[in-house]
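Lab notebook, bench 4. The sequencing result for the construct came back, and we need a structural model before the next group meeting so we can plan mutations. Quick request posted to the team channel:

Model the 3D structure of this chain.
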Amino acid sequence: MTVTIRQWLASAQAQLKRSPTPQLDARVLLCHCLGVPHSHLYAHPENRPDTITLREADAMLAARVQGQPVAYLTGKRAFFDLELEVSSATLIPRPETELLVESALAILPAGQARLADLGTGCGAIALAIKRQRPDVQVLASDNSLPALAVAARNQAQIGVRIHLLCAAWLQALRGGLFHAIVSNPPYVAAADKHLGAGDTRFEPSSALVSGPAGLDDLKQIIAHAPSHLLPGGYLLVEHGFNQAPAVRALYRRHGFHSVHTRNDLAGHPRLCCGQWGTGRA
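Done. Here's the predicted structure in token form:
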């Protein structure tokens, strides 16, 4: 006789004691295998999943015990108001990156506007903005074709239209001018002690690491963004919690004004915003 939902969850949580969220992990994995919402587990704890389902759940649990991210195991990640496909070719969207979406929505002008998302990965930022502002023309670029394939599937699933382009950073813009450029680039230092811990063990290093101080890609984006911004346009970038002073200095060095930092929900400096030129197009 197979185990009940209650019994499987209890065993799974015990095995996931090294996870910061053992109860949530167990429930997400079992819901994925059963194809049911979380409420089903609460409503039917004495139900007995069939043997095939339990084998799938056990295999996922074993992989999670070894550290595999839940998002890679289920192929899904919630972000803003979207459920996105993710894969080992993409960074797993973090809750703190929702701040970048909120900030971009706050500064975009009413009516027709143009926005570029550099290093889009699974398309999280670009698709969340487009979902909230269908009138905005969104270009989303990445230099990884496998990542863009994931973004394309997310676009089709969500039912919005953005322009996807394979290119590195500002090469994607091809002389275009935008009201806003946003990016969550790699910003981890090559020798950072957090690399190899948690989800970063499994995420692509090209989406995480950016030179000795973690600033190489940020320097490139900030230096070249002005030639692709309309007068009064904004550049918004996510950065590491200890990089805010260096990033603000880069903004000012390259002529941005109204430069400021925003903190994430944990109170860490996470986003820099600056305006180029004067007025608005």
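The chain has two domains: 5-66, 90-275.
Will bring this to the meeting.
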